[in-house]
Write a structure and sequence with these properties.
This protein is mostly helical. Helix content is about 75%, strand content about 0%. It has 6 helices and no strands. The protein is globular and about 40 Å long. The chain starts with 7 loop residues before the first helix and ends with a helix.
């Protein structure tokens, strides 16, 4: 179970989504420091709506995602997209402090998911994950 169990096609789609989300996260920084709330709202809305599960996947592919990805992966993905929706909302309302808060929550969400499911791509996170679990 997990990303490695997905077909090459689904892994590629997931990879493309992750790359698009990374570009979105990067694009928010200059928008935030320049007070470009309209861009933040637009980027965050696109991120909110970019679920791999909402892309034009056929029923077989959707079933494969749910069957092969752990429930915690899907929960974390849903939470990230929820946070993106909240970021879009607070950007629309021009709430600078909350824009910063939700952006930082999104960053934390990315790192948390990568530490749990993508240490093969981000080996530095496996060390962080180990140190956090040993501190408790």
């Amino acid at each position: 179970k997990g990303v490695a169990a997905l077909s090459t096609e689904l892994r590629n789609l997931l990879g493309k989504e992750m790359q698009a989300l990374q570009l979105g996260m990067q694009a928010i920084i200059p928008a935030a420091v320049s007070g470009d709330y309209d861009s933040i709202e637009s980027i965050a809305t696109k991120m909110k709506n970019s679920y791999i599960l909402k892309q034009s996947l056929n029923k077989h592919q959707i079933h494969a995602l749910h069957e092969k990805l752990p429930a915690t992966f899907i929960e974390k993905d849903n939470h990230f997209h929820y946070l993106a929706g909240m970021l879009a909302h607070v950007a629309k309302e021009r709430k600078t402090e909350l824009v910063n808060f939700y952006y930082s929550q999104m960053l934390e969400s990315c790192g948390d998911c990568h530490a749990q499911f993508a240490t093969h791509k981000f080996p530095g996170l496996s060390e962080i994950n180990k140190s956090v679990s040993h501190d408790h």
